[in-house]
Amino acid sequence: MLSSCMDQGAPMNFFCNSGKCATCVVQVMEGNEHLSEFSFNERYRLGEKLQSGYRLACQTFVYGDAMIKLG
Ligand code: FES
Predict the structure, then answer these.
(1) For residue range 37-69, what is the model confidence (pLDDT) as tens digits?
(2) Nearest-5° Cα angle at 62, 28 to 34
(3) Best probe residue, ligand 1, of 3, 12, 24 (max atoms within 8 Å of C-beta)
(4) Which residues line ligand 1 (CB under 6 A)?
(5) Complete domains list, the chain, with CATH
(6) Beta strands 54-56 and 67-70: pairing type?
């Protein structure tokens, strides 16, 4: 998702690109069904926030349309 957002010109914050710093947190507003399963690092870093749509952009793969809220 990180590269998709950057390709669209979205101003993304990211540091590690490996799921360890959590600077790339985004919130999925629509299209959860088009995203990859939660990674280990997302479960560890975000915990219950995953249920509110928060994801680590660098750990999430996009397979279809989704609406993402940055920052
Ligand atoms: S860039 Fe560090 S967790 Fe995504």
Answers:
(1) 999 999 999 999 999 999 999 999 999 999 999
(2) 70
(3) 24
(4) 14-17, 19-24, 56, 58
(5) 2-70 (3.10.20.30)
(6) unpaired
